């Protein structure tokens, strides 16, 4: 966030962003198809900033590292409503993940994969989106898939309902009607209110 930008108005949701790629030494060319092309310690999946423009990879110690898969879509939200960001992403023809963040008494973050077998079921994923699509107060995750060979892969939609303990979520599939696209023709998706 560009905290000094004249157009910032957090109360209305208008937030100007600052492109910090150059100062953080991150280069887009370090990634291709969700996998690193060159090993750089500052451009991996989960990377906290040091304040001097550099980053450190902590994916392993936070248990979110997924080095044997090929990530294709990612979304972030507070799925269990505990005030911490959680991560859901799709892996190309690999198990999809739904990570809830936990913080121990010393303030250390760790992620726990809570994806059900139906959520994790491998597909040729293209995009993953978080929104409250039906305006019921619960979070939904839309998974956009593409047709691969003889393997038809329709889109999927899941409801994430935060449980009362704010540590867990229930995950249930939803009927998405025409958005199912049973022929799996999607190459991307977006969300907006019209």
Annotation keywords:
mainly beta, 194 residues, 10 strands
Q: Catalogue the unreliable spans.
A: 26-45
- What is the helix/strand order? EEEEEEHEEEE
Structural class of the helix and strand makeup? mainly beta
Sketch the major β-sheet: 4 strands, antiparallel
The amount of beta strand, in percent, is 25-35%
Span of the ends, CA to CA: 26 Å
* Share of residues in helices: under 10%
What does this structure look like?
- The chain has 194 residues and is mostly beta strands.
- Helix content is 2%, strand content 30%.
- It contains one helix and ten strands, in the order ββββββαββββ.
- The strands form three sheets. It has a four-stranded antiparallel β-sheet with strand order 3-4-5-6, with no helix packed on it. Strands 7-8-9-10 form a four-stranded antiparallel β-sheet, with no helix packed on it.
- A hairpin with a 2-residue loop joins β1 (31-32) and β2.
- It comes from Tegillarca granosa.
- This is VCBS repeat-containing protein.
- Keywords: Signal.
- InterPro entries: Crtac1, FG-GAP, Integrin_alpha_N.
Helices and strands in order:
Layout: E1 31-32, E2 35-36, E3 71-77, E4 86-91, E5 94-103, E6 109-113, H1 117-120, E7 125-131, E8 139-145, E9 156-162, E10 169-173
Antiparallel strand pairs: 1-2, 3-4, 4-5, 5-6, 7-8, 8-9, 9-10
């Amino acid at each position: 966030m560009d905290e000094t930008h004249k157009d910032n108005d957090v109360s209305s949701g208008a937030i100007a962003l600052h492109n910090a790629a150059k100062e953080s030494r991150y280069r887009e060319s370090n990634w291709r198809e969700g996998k690193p092309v060159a090993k750089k310690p500052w451009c991996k999946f989960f990377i906290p900033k040091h304040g001097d423009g550099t980053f450190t990879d902590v994916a392993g110690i936070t248990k979110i590292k997924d080095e044997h898969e090929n990530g294709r879509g990612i979304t972030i939200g507070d799925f269990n409503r505990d005030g911490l960001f959680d991560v859901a992403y799709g892996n190309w023809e690999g198990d999809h993940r739904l990570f809830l963040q936990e913080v121990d008494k010393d303030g250390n973050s760790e992620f726990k994969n809570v994806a059900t077998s139906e959520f994790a079921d491998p597909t040729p994923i293209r995009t993953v989106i978080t929104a409250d699509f039906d305006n019921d107060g619960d979070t939904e995750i839309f998974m956009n898939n593409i047709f691969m060979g003889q393997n038809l892969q329709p889109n999927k939609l899941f409801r994430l309902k935060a449980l009362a303990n704010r540590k867990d979520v229930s995950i249930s599939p939803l009927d998405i009607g025409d958005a199912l696209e049973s022929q799996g023709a999607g190459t991307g998706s977006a969300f907006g209110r019209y």
